[in-house]
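Example record

Each entry pairs one chain with its bound ligand, nicotinamide-adenine-dinucleotide.
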Amino acid sequence: MKILVTGGAGFIGSHTIVELYHAGHDVVVVDNLCNSSRESLKRVAELVGVAEIPFFEADIRDRSALDHVLTEHPCEACIHFAGLKAVGESVTKPWEYYENNVSGTLVLLDVLRQHHCCNLIFSSSATVYGDPAEVPITEACPKGRCASPYGQTKSMVEEILMDMQKADPLWNIVLLRYFNPVGAHPSGQIGENPNGIPNNLMPYITQVAIGKRPQLGIFGNDYDTPDGTGVRDYIHVVDLARGHVAALTAIERKCGLAIYNLGTGQGYSVLDVVKAFEKSTGIPIPYHFEPRRPGDIDSYFSNPAKAARELHWTAQYGLEDMCRDSWNWQKQNPEGF
Ligand code: NAD
Ligand code: UDP
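Structure tokens for the complex follow.
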């Protein structure tokens, strides 16, 4: 299948393109490079053994640019990663987040339908569940109030996509709700490249390991969890990438609207991650406890059974693999790309 990949130069997009090539698909990438670089796609090309990945530096809000791309490269499906994703920044810049993530998606959808490309996979997030009534979280769990404008944009785009699919059953739309993507391609050639001080746990740990930060601050040790630190469902980015390839099979089956959690089903605490990192790399991670981070909840992990049943997809990598590959990427690329 030929697939338009928006945001394909980013962390999850670049890993997904590798897996799409391995599965025999073709891609064309649109990215405005606001949070990524061309270098990631050069490395993807090397990894999959092609001269270059078809790429347009363009913004998804630019209707004529998208029209041009789809005229030159007719596509059967779109995997839509493009978006701003920093939770804290979204609190201080809500307009920018709504405009980029929601308005940008509306423009993209309009151009896609004009080109009769009505198959879409959307990068959603487990954040749409808000503070879930129970864990593990199944797709049947009602959506909740998101703690940030970022989360709200994901939830709103989901609603827009559901309404569009209801109104026009020609659309096949898969909403993938990611849990906590970490890790990197085992080659160490592509990975996550955060700007400035990392907000997320794993890149913070790898920056402590490489000596860029003195120690990890653990946000809260009085949660209702076995060791008091927050529990999350970390998923290796290569597993997540393969989840998108599996989701294409739902599109091929003309799924209408389908929702899947992509997680391992296993919850690990912050201290579990620190210990797993130390074990798999041999590098000690100094840490201290800090107050809880506003908006965080105690425990959050998926029930991934629906994706296993319907997409024949399950995560293969464990926590130590995620730590090893995150470190492998960080140590080979101390300054990112
Ligand atoms: P990323 O920032 O590495 O990738 C997003 C890409 O989109 C970047 O390359 C960026 O330059 C591009 N982009 C942003 N706005 C654009 C626009 N208007 N036009 C064109 N390109 C644009 O982030 P990621 O971690 O790879 O996340 C990919 C998607 O998955 C995002 O939608 C994100 O919200 C979602 N998601 C990520 C996580 C996570 O923890 N990483 C969790 C859940 C959902
Ligand atoms: N966390 C932490 N220190 C950090 C970053 C994160 O203790 O520097 C904790 C955070 O409170 C949560 C877990 O690590 O319990 C995962 O946080 P992250 O920001 O990676 O993902 P989230 O689940 O919040 O999207």
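Residues 94 and 300 are 25 Å apart (CA to CA).
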